[in-house]
Amino acid sequence: MVAAKELAKNGHEVVLYEKSVFLGGLLAGFKMGKSYLEKAYHHIFKTDGEILGLIKELGIENKMVWKESSIAIYNGREIQPFVTPSDLLKFKGLDLISKIRLGVVGLWLSFDKNWQKYENITAVDWMKKYCGDKAYRVIWEPLLKGKFHDRYKEISMAWLWARIHTRSGSKDKNGKEYLGYMTGGFEQLITALEKELVKLKVTISKGKEVNFKEIESKYDRIIYTGPLKEVEYLGAICIILESSQNLSRYYWHNINDINSPFLAFIQQTNLIDKKHYRGNHVYYLGSYLPQDHEWFAKDQKEVEKIYLDYLKKIFPNFEGKKIKSINTFRFKTAQHLVTTKYKVPEYKVSEKIYQANFAQIYPEDRGTNFAAREGKKIAKMIEKSFKI
User: Fold this and answer.
1) How crowded is residue 221: how many other Cβ atoms within 10 Å of its Cβ?
2) Ranges of H-type helices in the chain
3) What three-state secondary structure class fits 33?
4) Which residues pair with 353 in a beta bridge?
5) Does residue 388 register a pLDDT over 70?
6) Architecture of domain 83-168
7) pLDDT in tens, 209-251
8) Rounded to whole angstroms, how far apart are CA atoms 263 and 255?
9) Could you tell me the residue ranges of all domains in the chain?
10) What is the DSSP-derived secondary structure letter of residue 170?
11) What pTM value is reported for the model?
12) In whole angstroms, what is the distance from residue 67 CA to residue 177 CA?
């Protein structure tokens, strides 16, 4: 959408084809109460200049709200806060030396800008060496396993560097993190961007799969933005609960238990007031899985039961009868595998065909901010190709 906007602004005639009936990809949502809610959890960091610039350009910056984040870790059958240096020092399950090493490593990675030196070493090996075995086993191994399943030992430290380095910029001098969200949901951004495309006379076709052979002769340039054949992807399952029950005082919970069916538990209504969601609390239970995992074929109710049964272990007071609605979304290409042998896919496929995909966002991970950046980048490549 950003690429289409940039090219149309420069006078090109643009046609945008969307296989789905809705625009926005992984940012798209569904109606819940007075608001829209994303099918997969989203927020914005203070450092996300590209997406914030787009929001301002579209004139919807008044929709942005910033809230102090709250992060906790579920470890040893207990939920513990994990944001500030003080939280780290109080964290149970680690000795003092492990805590100091963990804090120093986090500080180092937040300031170190030389990500290239991390490319050829795995996150497992690097974290074991510098954080120590104890901190690695308690903090990093469950997160890496939860994120990349049985491929976690192959993941490049450059990927983990980017996650830590990028996020650190959203904290203030006291170590507090602030996250951004749009009142009404990020559907506001998709809608505003679609209106801008219409204004720029971009033709939008939804709900129809494109046959490349049929369209190749019709256009001077084609940008393909779907999954790439040369990239390995993991899938994801995201279960969204709407409940009258308040389970936690934290927004983001890392579930550091390798037996948990989900990696992250997010209480959306600790970031955005529950008045936007019919007065109920909203929760995300998210997991990453191999594309051939049995849960992608399993009946939806069975998958939901697995997740809710484990949720009861984390929050013994959880009551299923207080659930007002439950939505389950499964994504087959949700996360690319950034191994030490990872090669960023080429943008140019042929003289006419280009490809742009979140797998080309490197070393950072996929996200709306970098999607906006990539949209501008591919548009500039197309512009340049006409001038050569």
Assistant:
1) 17
2) 2-9, 49-57, 85-90, 96-111, 123-131, 133-135, 141-148, 157-168, 187-199, 212-215, 300-314, 368-387
3) coil
4) 222
5) no
6) Orthogonal Bundle (1.10)
7) 888 888 888 999 999 999 999 999 999 999 999 999 999 999 9
8) 5
9) 2-68+181-226+345-387, 83-168, 233-336
10) T
11) 0.93
12) 8
Q: What is the DSSP string of 323-364?
A: EEEEEEEEEEEEEE--BTT--PPPSBSSSSEEE--GGG--SS
Tokens of 75: 């470890």
The CATH code belonging to domain 2-68+181-226+345-387 is 3.50.50.60
Instruction: Report how far residue 167's alpha carbon sits from residue 177's, in angstroms, rounded to the nearest whole number.
Output: 9
Task: Report the topology of domain 233-336.
Answer: Polyamine Oxidase; Chain A, domain 2 (3.90.660)
Q: Which helix (H) or strand (E) holds 179?
A: strand 178-182
54 φ/ψ sector (left φ>0, alpha ψ -120 to 50, else beta) = alpha
The tokens of 6 are what? 């940039």
pLDDT digits (tens, 9 = 90+) for 40-90: 999 999 889 999 999 999 999 999 999 998 999 999 889 999 988 899 999
Question: How many residues can be counted in the chain?
Answer: 388
CA 319 to chain centre: 28
The 8-class DSSP code of residue 207 comes to: S
Specify whether the CB–CB gap between 40 and 236 falls below 8 A. yes
- Residues 184, 63 contacting (CB under 8 angstroms): yes
Amino acid at 383: E
Q: How confident is the model at residue 167 (pLDDT cuts 50, 70, 90)?
A: confident
Q: Do domains 2-68+181-226+345-387 and 233-336 have the same CATH topology?
A: no
- CA–CA gap between residue 340 and residue 158 (Å, rounded): 8
End-to-end CA distance of the chain, in Å?
25
